[in-house]
């Protein structure tokens, strides 16, 4: 398989500017500035079929095409490296191994979008990644691939790194913009969408680290090459899967998008830990409904995963073995989301703690059979919250009720956890 994102990786440290350059780094940017118009770069990304890797899988080129070209004032690009979703650590790995790929990807995106100032919003605590990134920006500046009149063209670009003050909601793109502006980080209403009215009221594109890091290879090799990397006919490119939990070898790997769950666990993670058998997993970060052994052969690409009842999300896979109580696992996730609710809207602020307390009762053997319907009702009602945090929080609850209702019932009828005793 052709690695794109991990191509320049060293086993124990980040690639240097010289190494990245010697391995073809910044050639895509040089090619674009010399031979391609901004519209041609955007069209290349549209044709590549690249879909956003931040969770929702929105087509990247299409998102760029929503930015109006005729509004006065600046446009902005923001790279989202908030990455606070439990079970997801791919953006950290990318930046710890090779920050130059993101810098070049952002430069190409900014050229396509007509952006001259862009930001990287990075999770507080990702200190090594932030340090690498700041160093990479300085080196790239020195080499003339950032700053004024880049490579002798008329294109100018400055990149700024902003370290988050730290809340999960800051990863939501409009809350992120509030945080960057220094005001309370609650989501904004949409429409207007950021592409039209974003940071400081100006057109703004928000893209994930992994999304932007794919751009140099797409521009260098073309859309057909990128599409052919996928394991599914409808897919495009590779995907970073970060696996944790009860597998033999938890790790972050780059594989063709559409690789099956079974192959990831059996071949790449060396199977389950000794004594463990697979019970379930979260396939795409904490806000995605569970997969079970029935989903072993589902290609992990956006549409097949959605068809199978979950979401590819971030590709953060958390694996559970037979010793896991699924009520307790779900409670653990809901507790996180309830704590991270920004409190802006009532369904989420009040609903998530209520769901948490209901699960706590069931888990400790004090539940009532009526709680099952109450939970189901909340899965439905929390879809009407102000932003996607609350519906996402209910992803594992929906999966619990659909796939493990018997286990929930046994907690209630037996008055104790049937798994832990
Ligand atoms: C509560 C919440 C947290 C989010 N956290 C992140 C995050 O940490 N990183 C990210 O890229 N996207 C996150 N998103 C999605 C962003 O709002 C946005 O869709 C994404 O950054 C777009 O990038 P993409 O098009 O490249 O996927 C989050 C969304 C929600 C609702
Ligand atoms: S759904 Fe939750 S996180 Fe989103 S605005 Fe409402 S309170 Fe805030």
Automatic annotation (TrEMBL):
PROSITE patterns: COMPLEX1_51K_2. Belongs to the complex I 51 kDa subunit family. It comes from Oryzomonas rubra. The gene is nuoF. SUPFAM superfamilies: Nqo1 FMN-binding domain-like (SSF142019), Nqo1 middle domain-like (SSF142984), Nqo1C-terminal domain-like (SSF140490). GO terms for molecular function: 4 iron, 4 sulfur cluster binding; FMN binding; metal ion binding; NADH dehydrogenase (ubiquinone) activity. This is NADH-quinone oxidoreductase subunit NuoF. Keywords: 4Fe-4S, Iron, Iron-sulfur, Metal-binding. NCBIfam families: PRK13596.1. The keyword Methyltransferase does not apply. SMART domains: NADH_4Fe-4S. Residues 327-372 form the NADH-ubiquinone oxidoreductase 51kDa subunit iron-sulphur binding domain.
